[in-house]
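Table S2 (continued). Query chain:
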Amino acid sequence: MTQAVEELTEGAARRLRIRGQLLDPRVPASRGPAQVAATLVGVQAQDLVAASLSIRARTEGLVVGDVERAATDPASHPLVLTWTLRGTRHLHHAADVRWLLAMVGPTFSRPGARQQQLGVAGTTGDRAVQVLADALAGGATPTRRDVADLLAGHGVDPTGQAPIHVIRRAALEGVLCILPGPGGDARRERYVSLDRWVPEISADRPGVSQLVRRYLAAYGPATPNDLVAWSGLAPGVVATGWREVSDDDELLEVRIPNGPAWRLAAHCPPDPGPVATRLLGAFDTLILGYADRSLHLHADHARAVNAGGGRIKPVVVTDGRVVATWKLRRAQGKVQCEVTPFPATPGRTDTDTSVEVEVEVEVEVDDIERFLRA
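Corresponding output:
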């Protein structure tokens, strides 16, 4: 069991996370979208443009089309879009899709009250998934409208939300994955057989202990509760995997201002000092990766970032602290970023409005406009 305890300042803990999540610009960034997804073990992607913007902040020189091509190129497609962690849509490295689905799919594919209400639970839902699986196995790549039409003759109401619930369940059961629509247009996305798109390579699949290692490599220092919140796995499942890693003496306990946390003992980089400003996309993993977000997001500003309904706004992060939100505006064919700083509060460093930060924000805004323009 882990014996040593390390004392970390709040800033040092934030910077370890920033470096693990590829947000320190001093770390070489010659990586592609799939490498980012592999390091983060997934990038949330309800909105493909938002996911692409999160990838932009962790790379150099890419454009938004590079992300789309990585998920749609029939020759390589190293990036896969499907429902996984927390039962939500994510971009994953192709090598991670099957073992993650095996781990989280059974939890989130199980029909619940909403599926009962929509009439796609029980035998109707089972039959609908099988009908869709048979169509995809034959090589079809239907749109959502096509799926609704296909299922209409099998007891599924094509006019409401029932078809997408069948699609989501099929994805979580490993039947299909998503081919993004051009420009991230969800109305034009298509679905493809997972067996055809990502063939099974090996029967060996990592267990929860490997997920703990992968999570802590990118998100540490963190806690089991953080991993539960990020993955959607049951606390008991996470506890078992966490204990296996701890029993192998791979964990180092750290003390930070918001309580005890753990990181991999093998990951011991020195504190590199303050980290430059980054503009992150909506639903970024720096926010979604933790149950306790206070290390990065002060409670006074939490509602400015997440006002409810599950939406996490795009944020401006300076040295790992969220200091503002931002949004895109499109006018006369041009893409512009509008930044909304948090109100300045005397004695608080999470409302940084220094000239240096303003310049860094301008650099990031220019790069986002370049990224989306190309």
